[in-house]
Amino acid sequence: MPDWIRLRSRHWTQTKVFDVLGLLFRLLFGLAIALGTGFGASYYALTDGRLLAAVRVGPWVAWPDVGQAAPNPYTRAYLARTGHLQLGHAEGIQFSAFSDDDGEALDARCTYEIRGTVPGASFWTLVATALDGTNIAASDALPALHSERIARSGAGDLVAAVGPHLSPGNWLETAGKGEFVILLTLYDATAFSGGNSALGDMPSIRKLVCP
Amino acid sequence: MSRLLFWAAGGLVLGGLIHLIVIITLPDAATRGVWNRLSAIAPAETLVVIDDIGPNAPNPLGLDPELLYGVCRLELNDGPGIVSGPLPLAFWSVAVFNPSGHVIYSTTNRSGSGDLLDMGLFNPSQTRLLAEQRFEINEGLLIVETGGDDAIAVIRLAPPHPSMRERYRDILAGLACRTLR
Predict the structure, then answer these.
(1) According to CATH, what is the number of the domain A53-209?
(2) pLDDT in the model for residue A172
(3) I want to staple A143 with a disulfide (CB 3.0 to 4.6 A). Which of A61, A82, A99, B65 is the partner?
Protein backbone atom coordinates (compact mmCIF):
# COMPACT_ATOMS: atom_id res chain seq x y z
CA MET A 1 0.00 0.00 0.00
CA PRO A 2 1.39 3.40 -0.89
CA ASP A 3 2.21 5.68 2.02
CA TRP A 4 -0.26 8.39 1.09
CA ILE A 5 -3.22 5.96 1.23
CA ARG A 6 -2.25 4.65 4.67
CA LEU A 7 -1.92 8.22 5.95
CA ARG A 8 -5.32 9.22 4.63
CA SER A 9 -7.03 6.21 6.10
CA ARG A 10 -5.50 6.88 9.51
CA HIS A 11 -6.64 10.48 9.32
CA TRP A 12 -10.12 9.31 8.35
CA THR A 13 -10.38 6.90 11.32
CA GLN A 14 -9.25 9.64 13.65
CA THR A 15 -11.92 12.11 12.48
CA LYS A 16 -14.54 9.39 12.75
CA VAL A 17 -13.55 8.63 16.35
CA PHE A 18 -13.69 12.35 17.18
CA ASP A 19 -17.11 12.62 15.56
CA VAL A 20 -18.48 9.74 17.59
CA LEU A 21 -16.97 11.06 20.80
CA GLY A 22 -18.37 14.50 20.09
CA LEU A 23 -21.82 13.09 19.47
CA LEU A 24 -21.62 11.03 22.64
CA PHE A 25 -20.57 14.08 24.61
CA ARG A 26 -23.41 16.18 23.23
CA LEU A 27 -25.88 13.37 23.86
CA LEU A 28 -24.79 13.04 27.49
CA PHE A 29 -24.81 16.82 27.86
CA GLY A 30 -28.38 17.01 26.51
CA LEU A 31 -29.49 14.13 28.73
CA ALA A 32 -27.93 15.71 31.81
CA ILE A 33 -29.80 18.94 31.09
CA ALA A 34 -33.05 17.01 30.52
CA LEU A 35 -32.79 15.01 33.75
CA GLY A 36 -31.60 18.01 35.74
CA THR A 37 -34.36 20.34 34.62
CA GLY A 38 -37.05 17.63 34.57
CA PHE A 39 -36.55 16.27 38.07
CA GLY A 40 -35.16 19.52 39.47
CA ALA A 41 -38.20 21.50 38.37
CA SER A 42 -40.51 18.80 39.73
CA TYR A 43 -38.75 18.81 43.10
CA TYR A 44 -38.83 22.60 43.21
CA ALA A 45 -42.50 22.71 42.22
CA LEU A 46 -43.47 20.36 45.03
CA THR A 47 -41.35 21.85 47.81
CA ASP A 48 -41.17 25.60 47.24
CA GLY A 49 -43.50 25.97 44.30
CA ARG A 50 -43.86 29.73 44.52
CA LEU A 51 -43.82 30.23 40.77
CA LEU A 52 -46.48 27.61 40.21
CA ALA A 53 -49.24 26.76 42.67
CA ALA A 54 -48.09 28.01 46.06
CA VAL A 55 -48.62 31.50 47.45
CA ARG A 56 -45.78 33.15 49.30
CA VAL A 57 -45.88 36.05 51.71
CA GLY A 58 -42.48 36.76 53.20
CA PRO A 59 -41.23 33.44 54.55
CA TRP A 60 -44.73 31.90 54.62
CA VAL A 61 -45.95 29.48 52.00
CA ALA A 62 -49.53 28.29 51.49
CA TRP A 63 -51.17 26.11 48.88
CA PRO A 64 -54.60 27.70 48.43
CA ASP A 65 -55.88 24.86 46.23
CA VAL A 66 -55.30 21.96 48.64
CA GLY A 67 -58.85 21.87 49.99
CA GLN A 68 -60.56 21.90 46.61
CA ALA A 69 -62.40 18.97 45.05
CA ALA A 70 -60.43 19.29 41.81
CA PRO A 71 -57.06 20.82 42.64
CA ASN A 72 -54.63 21.83 39.92
CA PRO A 73 -52.01 19.23 38.85
CA TYR A 74 -49.24 20.76 40.95
CA THR A 75 -51.39 20.78 44.06
CA ARG A 76 -52.49 17.19 43.36
CA ALA A 77 -48.87 16.10 43.14
CA TYR A 78 -48.02 18.08 46.28
CA LEU A 79 -50.85 16.38 48.19
CA ALA A 80 -49.77 12.95 46.97
CA ARG A 81 -46.20 13.68 47.98
CA THR A 82 -46.95 14.89 51.50
CA GLY A 83 -49.88 12.59 52.34
CA HIS A 84 -51.07 15.10 54.94
CA LEU A 85 -54.66 15.42 56.05
CA GLN A 86 -55.34 18.73 54.36
CA LEU A 87 -57.94 21.25 55.45
CA GLY A 88 -61.01 21.60 53.28
CA HIS A 89 -61.52 24.92 51.55
CA ALA A 90 -64.17 25.99 54.06
CA GLU A 91 -62.21 24.80 57.08
CA GLY A 92 -59.13 26.94 56.86
CA ILE A 93 -55.65 27.24 55.46
CA GLN A 94 -52.18 26.31 56.62
CA PHE A 95 -49.07 28.43 56.19
CA SER A 96 -45.63 26.97 56.62
CA ALA A 97 -42.35 28.80 57.04
CA PHE A 98 -39.06 27.03 56.31
CA SER A 99 -36.93 30.15 56.69
CA ASP A 100 -36.79 33.44 58.57
CA ASP A 101 -37.28 36.90 57.06
CA ASP A 102 -33.68 36.92 55.83
CA GLY A 103 -34.22 33.73 53.91
CA GLU A 104 -32.04 31.61 56.19
CA ALA A 105 -33.37 28.13 56.98
CA LEU A 106 -34.88 27.85 60.47
CA ASP A 107 -32.43 26.19 62.84
CA ALA A 108 -33.81 24.35 65.89
CA ARG A 109 -30.86 25.49 68.02
CA CYS A 110 -31.89 29.14 67.58
CA THR A 111 -34.81 31.08 69.00
CA TYR A 112 -37.01 33.13 66.67
CA GLU A 113 -39.45 35.91 67.30
CA ILE A 114 -42.73 35.88 65.43
CA ARG A 115 -44.37 39.26 65.41
CA GLY A 116 -47.23 40.86 63.56
CA THR A 117 -50.86 40.46 62.65
CA VAL A 118 -52.32 37.15 61.67
CA PRO A 119 -54.96 37.15 58.89
CA GLY A 120 -58.57 36.84 60.00
CA ALA A 121 -59.69 33.47 61.32
CA SER A 122 -61.87 32.00 64.07
CA PHE A 123 -58.69 30.86 65.74
CA TRP A 124 -55.23 29.72 64.79
CA THR A 125 -52.51 27.43 66.08
CA LEU A 126 -48.76 27.71 65.73
CA VAL A 127 -46.70 24.52 65.76
CA ALA A 128 -42.97 23.87 65.28
CA THR A 129 -42.16 20.60 63.54
CA ALA A 130 -39.13 18.86 62.10
CA LEU A 131 -39.02 18.51 58.33
CA ASP A 132 -40.72 15.10 58.59
CA GLY A 133 -43.70 16.59 60.46
CA THR A 134 -42.70 15.48 63.96
CA ASN A 135 -43.66 18.05 66.56
CA ILE A 136 -40.47 19.36 68.21
CA ALA A 137 -42.10 21.07 71.22
CA ALA A 138 -40.08 20.40 74.36
CA SER A 139 -43.03 19.53 76.56
CA ASP A 140 -46.27 17.57 76.28
CA ALA A 141 -47.99 20.36 78.17
CA LEU A 142 -47.44 22.96 75.46
CA PRO A 143 -47.34 21.31 72.05
CA ALA A 144 -48.52 24.45 70.23
CA LEU A 145 -49.49 28.08 70.65
CA HIS A 146 -53.22 28.73 70.42
CA SER A 147 -54.63 32.14 69.47
CA GLU A 148 -57.05 32.12 72.39
CA ARG A 149 -54.40 31.31 74.95
CA ILE A 150 -51.65 33.81 74.22
CA ALA A 151 -50.93 37.26 75.56
CA ARG A 152 -51.29 39.98 72.91
CA SER A 153 -49.31 43.14 72.42
CA GLY A 154 -51.04 46.48 73.02
CA ALA A 155 -52.04 46.65 69.35
CA GLY A 156 -53.46 43.12 69.42
CA ASP A 157 -50.51 41.71 67.54
CA LEU A 158 -48.96 38.33 68.00
CA VAL A 159 -45.54 38.43 69.63
CA ALA A 160 -44.14 35.00 70.38
CA ALA A 161 -40.78 33.32 70.74
CA VAL A 162 -40.16 29.88 69.26
CA GLY A 163 -36.99 28.10 70.28
CA PRO A 164 -35.02 26.49 73.08
CA HIS A 165 -34.01 29.71 74.92
CA LEU A 166 -36.09 30.94 77.86
CA SER A 167 -38.11 33.91 76.61
CA PRO A 168 -40.56 36.35 78.17
CA GLY A 169 -44.16 36.49 77.03
CA ASN A 170 -45.46 33.81 74.72
CA TRP A 171 -42.88 31.10 74.37
CA LEU A 172 -43.14 27.87 72.46
CA GLU A 173 -40.23 25.89 73.84
CA THR A 174 -38.66 23.53 71.35
CA ALA A 175 -35.95 20.91 71.56
CA GLY A 176 -33.71 19.18 69.09
CA LYS A 177 -31.44 20.32 66.32
CA GLY A 178 -31.42 20.65 62.58
CA GLU A 179 -33.82 22.48 60.33
CA PHE A 180 -37.42 22.94 61.33
CA VAL A 181 -40.70 24.35 60.07
CA ILE A 182 -43.18 26.70 61.69
CA LEU A 183 -46.78 25.85 60.80
CA LEU A 184 -49.42 28.51 61.26
CA THR A 185 -52.87 27.01 60.73
CA LEU A 186 -55.81 29.38 60.39
CA TYR A 187 -59.17 27.76 61.05
CA ASP A 188 -62.27 29.18 59.43
CA ALA A 189 -60.04 31.70 57.69
CA THR A 190 -61.03 34.56 55.47
CA ALA A 191 -57.87 34.32 53.37
CA PHE A 192 -58.50 32.82 49.92
CA SER A 193 -62.21 32.38 50.65
CA GLY A 194 -65.06 33.65 48.54
CA GLY A 195 -62.96 34.70 45.59
CA ASN A 196 -60.70 36.69 47.86
CA SER A 197 -57.21 36.11 46.59
CA ALA A 198 -55.56 39.05 48.29
CA LEU A 199 -53.66 38.31 51.43
CA GLY A 200 -52.77 40.88 54.03
CA ASP A 201 -49.65 40.99 56.09
CA MET A 202 -48.25 37.90 57.71
CA PRO A 203 -46.16 37.94 60.89
CA SER A 204 -42.43 38.39 60.51
CA ILE A 205 -39.93 35.76 61.67
CA ARG A 206 -36.72 37.16 63.12
CA LYS A 207 -33.77 35.38 64.69
CA LEU A 208 -33.38 36.36 68.35
CA VAL A 209 -30.72 34.13 69.88
CA CYS A 210 -28.42 31.70 68.18
CA PRO A 211 -25.54 29.88 69.84
CA MET B 1 -20.71 25.46 19.63
CA SER B 2 -24.01 25.93 17.86
CA ARG B 3 -24.41 22.15 17.80
CA LEU B 4 -23.90 22.08 21.57
CA LEU B 5 -26.56 24.78 22.00
CA PHE B 6 -28.89 22.75 19.83
CA TRP B 7 -28.42 19.74 22.10
CA ALA B 8 -28.90 21.93 25.18
CA ALA B 9 -32.21 23.17 23.77
CA GLY B 10 -33.22 19.58 23.06
CA GLY B 11 -32.31 18.70 26.65
CA LEU B 12 -34.50 21.51 27.96
CA VAL B 13 -37.49 20.33 25.91
CA LEU B 14 -36.99 16.76 27.12
CA GLY B 15 -36.61 18.09 30.67
CA GLY B 16 -39.94 19.88 30.36
CA LEU B 17 -41.55 16.65 29.23
CA ILE B 18 -40.04 14.73 32.16
CA HIS B 19 -41.33 17.42 34.52
CA LEU B 20 -44.87 17.21 33.12
CA ILE B 21 -44.87 13.40 33.27
CA VAL B 22 -43.63 13.42 36.89
CA ILE B 23 -46.25 15.96 37.99
CA ILE B 24 -49.11 14.19 36.22
CA THR B 25 -48.26 10.59 37.14
CA LEU B 26 -47.13 11.17 40.72
CA PRO B 27 -50.64 11.28 42.30
CA ASP B 28 -51.61 7.91 40.81
CA ALA B 29 -48.30 6.31 41.69
CA ALA B 30 -48.39 7.45 45.33
CA THR B 31 -49.23 4.72 47.81
CA ARG B 32 -49.04 6.74 51.01
CA GLY B 33 -51.73 9.24 50.19
CA VAL B 34 -54.22 10.48 52.72
CA TRP B 35 -56.91 8.00 51.58
CA ASN B 36 -54.69 4.96 52.19
CA ARG B 37 -53.58 6.29 55.55
CA LEU B 38 -57.13 7.02 56.69
CA SER B 39 -58.52 3.69 55.41
CA ALA B 40 -55.82 1.90 57.36
CA ILE B 41 -56.98 3.37 60.67
CA ALA B 42 -60.75 3.52 60.10
CA PRO B 43 -62.82 0.40 59.44
CA ALA B 44 -66.09 1.05 57.60
CA GLU B 45 -68.97 2.45 59.63
CA THR B 46 -66.92 3.03 62.75
CA LEU B 47 -66.10 6.43 64.06
CA VAL B 48 -62.46 6.36 65.05
CA VAL B 49 -60.98 9.21 67.05
CA ILE B 50 -57.30 9.46 66.21
CA ASP B 51 -55.03 9.11 69.25
CA ASP B 52 -53.13 12.16 70.42
CA ILE B 53 -49.70 12.52 68.89
CA GLY B 54 -47.26 13.96 71.36
CA PRO B 55 -44.01 15.78 70.66
CA ASN B 56 -41.28 13.68 69.01
CA ALA B 57 -43.77 11.08 67.76
CA PRO B 58 -44.16 10.51 64.01
CA ASN B 59 -47.04 12.48 62.57
CA PRO B 60 -47.55 11.21 59.00
CA LEU B 61 -50.93 12.89 58.60
CA GLY B 62 -49.63 16.26 59.77
CA LEU B 63 -52.23 16.57 62.54
CA ASP B 64 -52.61 19.65 64.70
CA PRO B 65 -51.95 18.79 68.38
CA GLU B 66 -54.66 21.23 69.50
CA LEU B 67 -57.44 19.45 67.63
CA LEU B 68 -59.29 16.16 67.90
CA TYR B 69 -59.89 14.21 64.72
CA GLY B 70 -62.75 11.78 64.14
CA VAL B 71 -62.62 9.59 61.02
CA CYS B 72 -65.67 7.86 59.56
CA ARG B 73 -65.32 5.68 56.46
CA LEU B 74 -68.49 4.79 54.60
CA GLU B 75 -69.26 2.40 51.75
CA LEU B 76 -72.39 3.65 50.07
CA ASN B 77 -73.19 0.71 47.77
CA ASP B 78 -75.76 -0.61 50.28
CA GLY B 79 -77.38 2.68 51.14
CA PRO B 80 -76.72 6.32 51.96
CA GLY B 81 -74.42 7.12 54.85
CA ILE B 82 -75.02 9.34 57.80
CA VAL B 83 -72.70 11.12 60.18
CA SER B 84 -74.67 12.77 62.92
CA GLY B 85 -74.82 13.69 66.55
CA PRO B 86 -74.50 16.55 68.99
CA LEU B 87 -71.20 18.37 69.25
CA PRO B 88 -70.08 20.90 71.85
CA LEU B 89 -70.40 24.61 71.22
CA ALA B 90 -66.80 24.95 70.14
CA PHE B 91 -65.16 25.13 66.75
CA TRP B 92 -65.73 22.01 64.70
CA SER B 93 -65.52 21.30 61.00
CA VAL B 94 -66.22 18.43 58.63
CA ALA B 95 -64.40 17.46 55.45
CA VAL B 96 -65.47 14.64 53.12
CA PHE B 97 -62.64 12.97 51.19
CA ASN B 98 -62.96 10.99 47.97
CA PRO B 99 -60.62 8.06 47.15
CA SER B 100 -58.25 10.43 45.35
CA GLY B 101 -57.67 12.06 48.72
CA HIS B 102 -59.35 15.34 47.77
CA VAL B 103 -61.87 17.21 49.86
CA ILE B 104 -65.18 17.20 48.01
CA TYR B 105 -67.16 18.92 50.74
CA SER B 106 -66.27 20.88 53.83
CA THR B 107 -68.07 23.04 56.30
CA THR B 108 -67.71 24.41 59.83
CA ASN B 109 -70.00 24.93 62.79
CA ARG B 110 -70.24 28.59 61.82
CA SER B 111 -72.30 27.74 58.73
CA GLY B 112 -75.45 27.51 60.81
CA SER B 113 -75.40 23.99 62.19
CA GLY B 114 -74.40 25.18 65.65
CA ASP B 115 -74.11 22.27 68.05
CA LEU B 116 -75.66 19.55 65.89
CA LEU B 117 -73.95 17.76 63.06
CA ASP B 118 -76.37 16.01 60.71
CA MET B 119 -74.86 14.99 57.43
CA GLY B 120 -76.05 12.53 54.79
CA LEU B 121 -73.71 11.15 52.15
CA PHE B 122 -75.25 9.95 48.92
CA ASN B 123 -73.74 8.42 45.80
CA PRO B 124 -74.99 9.79 42.45
CA SER B 125 -77.91 7.35 42.06
CA GLN B 126 -79.02 7.91 45.65
CA THR B 127 -78.88 11.66 45.06
CA ARG B 128 -81.08 11.23 42.01
CA LEU B 129 -83.56 9.13 44.00
CA LEU B 130 -83.54 11.71 46.77
CA ALA B 131 -84.54 14.40 44.29
CA GLU B 132 -87.08 12.26 42.42
CA GLN B 133 -88.85 10.68 45.37
CA ARG B 134 -89.14 13.93 47.28
CA PHE B 135 -88.39 12.35 50.63
CA GLU B 136 -88.97 14.53 53.60
CA ILE B 137 -85.64 15.83 54.68
CA ASN B 138 -84.99 17.15 58.13
CA GLU B 139 -84.17 20.77 58.31
CA GLY B 140 -80.46 21.31 58.67
CA LEU B 141 -79.44 18.02 57.05
CA LEU B 142 -76.27 18.55 55.08
CA ILE B 143 -76.58 16.66 51.81
CA VAL B 144 -73.28 15.59 50.30
CA GLU B 145 -73.05 13.94 46.91
CA THR B 146 -69.93 11.82 46.97
CA GLY B 147 -69.51 11.02 43.29
CA GLY B 148 -68.73 7.38 44.10
CA ASP B 149 -69.39 4.63 46.62
CA ASP B 150 -66.49 5.35 48.92
CA ALA B 151 -66.06 8.37 51.13
CA ILE B 152 -64.33 9.30 54.35
CA ALA B 153 -65.66 12.03 56.59
CA VAL B 154 -63.14 13.71 58.88
CA ILE B 155 -64.54 15.71 61.79
CA ARG B 156 -62.20 18.18 63.44
CA LEU B 157 -63.12 19.38 66.91
CA ALA B 158 -61.19 22.06 68.76
CA PRO B 159 -61.36 21.93 72.56
CA PRO B 160 -60.99 25.50 73.88
CA HIS B 161 -58.69 24.23 76.63
CA PRO B 162 -56.54 21.09 77.02
CA SER B 163 -58.41 20.11 80.18
CA MET B 164 -61.58 19.64 78.11
CA ARG B 165 -59.85 17.28 75.71
CA GLU B 166 -60.99 13.97 77.19
CA ARG B 167 -64.62 15.08 77.49
CA TYR B 168 -64.59 16.36 73.91
CA ARG B 169 -63.00 13.12 72.75
CA ASP B 170 -65.90 11.13 74.25
CA ILE B 171 -68.44 13.39 72.59
CA LEU B 172 -66.69 13.03 69.24
CA ALA B 173 -66.53 9.25 69.63
CA GLY B 174 -70.28 9.22 70.26
CA LEU B 175 -71.18 10.51 66.79
CA ALA B 176 -73.16 8.11 64.63
CA CYS B 177 -71.30 6.83 61.56
CA ARG B 178 -73.23 4.25 59.55
CA THR B 179 -75.09 3.51 56.35
CA LEU B 180 -78.86 3.25 56.18
CA ARG B 181 -79.96 -0.08 54.77
Answers:
(1) 2.60.120.600
(2) 93
(3) B65
